[in-house]
Design goal:
CATH class of the largest domain: Alpha Beta
Low-confidence stretches: none
Number of strands: 11
Number of helices: 10
Mean pLDDT: 98
Distance between the termini: 35 Å
CATH topology of the largest domain: Udp-n-acetylmuramoylalanyl-d-glutamate--2,6- Diaminopimelate Ligase, Chain: A, domain 1
Structural class: alpha/beta
Radius of gyration: 19 Å
């Protein structure tokens, strides 16, 4: 498959033009023009790039790429090493941030909800990135936290009333703790995201709505994994997802 065709397909599939973001989405580093093998992961870390080199992959596809708004743009240190690895081995880097969070089927939020068995009922927050859903039956917050731990393979941090009955759940993967108050206003009994901030603790305790920090990496593995399966099925590409350990 031609790299240009792959980029066009992914840009359209994930509706890149619809979302405002703070990084460039799509092709970030251009490599060889033909793509047969794609290595997929959450973040374009050096460890993932080294896997791509060792496995002779043509392209790397991730959720967290490079060139974030506000970063120092100089090509030095770690940034130089990462870009040098890609350019030396003619490997492309494609990255989709908010578009991969928001997609209705392949997105991180859609995939997390499916994994947990939460029935989607609506969207909330900026650009409708947050998701609302319902459990099949109400259960205490502590029980929901145990279910999340079992499915993600990581113990989440539950803040707030562990005994609160949860029927309506809101979630947004990654670093979306800033949407907590909007989740409360949307009527959620509990809010799930990846990270947690100091002020989040107070909001959970004072509002009575528990907050579940399930891990940034842990909650954002499933969108790019689903996208890898989609590309393999749609185009016959060898699209391999690798989950590099990250405790955060």
């Amino acid at each position: 498959m031609q790299l240009s065709a792959l980029q066009t397909y992914l840009d359209e599939l994930l509706e890149v033009s619809r979302l405002r973001d703070y990084c460039p989405n799509g092709l970030q580093v251009e490599g060889r023009p033909e793509v047969r093998r794609v290595l997929c992961g959450v973040t374009a870390s050096q460890a993932l790039l080294d896997r791509a080199v060792d496995g002779r992959f043509d392209a790397v596809l991730v959720h967290h790429g490079y060139f974030w708004k506000g970063e120092d743009g100089r090509i030095t240190g770690i940034r130089r090493q990462r870009l040098a690895t890609l350019l030396k081995h003619d490997i492309s880097l494609l990255a989709y941030h908010l578009p991969l969070d928001a997609h209705a089927e392949l997105g991180n939020n859609a995939q997390l909800g499916r994994l947990m068995g939460w029935m989607p009922t609506g969207r909330f927050a900026d650009q409708e990135l947050g998701w609302l859903g319902e459990l099949a039956q109400a259960e205490p917050a502590a029980q929901l936290a145990r279910s999340v731990a079992a499915r993600l393979g990581r113990d989440p941090l539950l803040i707030g009333d562990e005994k609160r009955a949860v029927k309506r759940v809101a979630w947004c993967t990654g670093g979306a703790q800033g949407y907590f108050e909007q989740a409360i206003l949307a009527g959620a009994d509990l809010y799930v995201s990846g990270e947690i901030s100091e002020q989040t603790v107070h909001l959970a305790r004072e509002s009575g709505v528990p907050y579940l920090a399930a891990g940034h990496h842990a909650t954002e593995r499933y969108g790019v994994k689903a996208l890898a399966r989609h590309l393999a099925g749609e185009f016959g590409l060898e699209a391999e997802f690798v989950d590099l350990d990250n405790p955060v």
